[in-house]
Amino acid sequence: MEPVAVVGVGMTRMERERRPDGYADLVYEAVCLALADAGMTIDQVDNVVTISNDFFDGRTISSMAVQDACGSYDKNISTVEGDGAFGAFYGLMRILSGSFGTTLVCAHHKGSESDMSLITNAMFDPVYERSLGIEAVTSAALQARAYMDRYGVSEEDCALVSVKNRANALRNPLAQLPLELTVEEVMSSPYLAEPLKVLDCCPVSDGAAALVLASAERARKAAGKPVWVRGVAHCCDAYHLGDRDLSDVRALQRAAAKAYSMAGIDDPAREIDVVELYDAFSYMELMWLEGLGFCGRGEAGRLTAGGATSLEGNTPVNASGGCLAGNPVLVAGLNRIIECALQVRGEAGEHQVEGVRTAVAQGINGPCGQSHCVWVLGGER
pTM of the entire structure? Predict the structure, then answer.
């Protein structure tokens, strides 16, 4: 793959409700931060990729609400309706096409203005599944139970993830839900859909993020410290939940294998220094770690809580607090990439992990991790 780098990043603070701010306000804030971080003006951006969703925004062609705010006037514009990791992948491809030198990618979401249950119900088949009332939480509960039963993972094992990640968020000023928790507190929180309890689940969030990608030639001219894309891949599983084994992570395994091969990584547990993954629910961190190759199937759930950022025996995971500490949908995968870029640059602030040279970010689309996108980022090339 031709060299491409992340040269500028920007994230808003994640909040339960940013009532005074519309979509454009959030996007403008994130884009300004990313451009300032890159030492660039909007005139130096060749094309723009926006990430939005008509259902969440409550309007058709939702991307039109933010085009002025992201500086897209007189530029080539594309829109992705999905997680930010996939939107960034599309932005990367536009540079690799040779047609553009720089791409601005931005995502926004206001969960405070959305009916999450109603909207996520709409991602299911309208004939057979939607009328059952299944949505993001209940479908995740089905997957959690399938995974836990197959591998003997307990609710307490999953609760450890919530304890760890909310504690990590105490060091992240942009996190929405930093908490000092115990396993007992997680276990005593009410069930939303068994086995998922309130403290196993991410909060409803408002937020936006943006990053600037650049070709090697343009990256070396940027004021910011480039973080190079070493490998990236995605893979999608079956749409209908009944057409796949929900305890299986084959789509993630295949995406990770492709990204690692591109990056020249043979042993992720030894060669990767930090991971930022999509943990909208506590069990997901355990499943996705296994799919990313950091331990064998069923092993992550048997690890005990270790230090401030990691589960014992694993690479540090979600040092930022992850999605459990703030989850503006669509923005989450972009946040994971940004957090990895900051870790590689050594600029993650109080939640910086020592000695990071290579980092992995992951985002998902669709119910129960139907589709996965894996990024491997590294330092000086």
Answer: 0.96
Share the mean pLDDT of the chain.
94
Does CATH place domain 4-115+205-219 in 3.40.47.10?
yes
Every domain of the chain with CATH number 3.40.47.10 lies at 4-115+205-219, 132-201+230-378
For residues 100 and 76, the answer to whether their CB atoms sit within 8 Å is yes
Beta bridge partners of 106: 50, 210
Backbone angles phi, psi at 367, to 5 degrees: -70, 140
Residues in a beta bridge with 191: 197
Indicate the Cα dihedral angle 36, 37, 38, 43, nearest 10°: -20
Residue with tokens 């514009």: 77
Taking the C-alpha atoms of residue 237 and residue 255, their distance in angstroms, rounded to an integer, is 11
Provide the pLDDT for residue 11. Answer: 98
**CB-based contacts of 81, cutoff 8 Å, min separation 6:** 51, 52, 53, 54
C-beta of residue 196 within 8 angstroms of C-beta of residue 161:
no
Which helix (H) or strand (E) segment is 69 a member of?
none
Q: What is the dihedral of CA 356, 343, 327, 122, to 10 degrees?
A: -70
Placement of tokens 């309130």 in the chain: 198
* Among the ranges given (6-20, 161-175, 236-250, 299-313), the one the predictor scored with the smallest mean pLDDT: 299-313
Burial class (CB in 10 A: 0-12, 13-18, 19+), 366: middle
* CA 238 – CA 180 distance, rounded (Å): 38
Span of 125-129, 135-139, 180-184, 205-209 with lowest mean pLDDT: 125-129
What ranges in the chain are assigned the alpha helix state H? 23-38, 54-57, 84-96, 116-121, 136-151, 155-168, 183-188, 216-219, 250-263, 268-271, 282-291, 332-345
Domain at 132-201+230-378, CATH homologous superfamily: Thiolase/Chalcone synthase (3.40.47.10)
**pLDDT value, residue 268:** 95
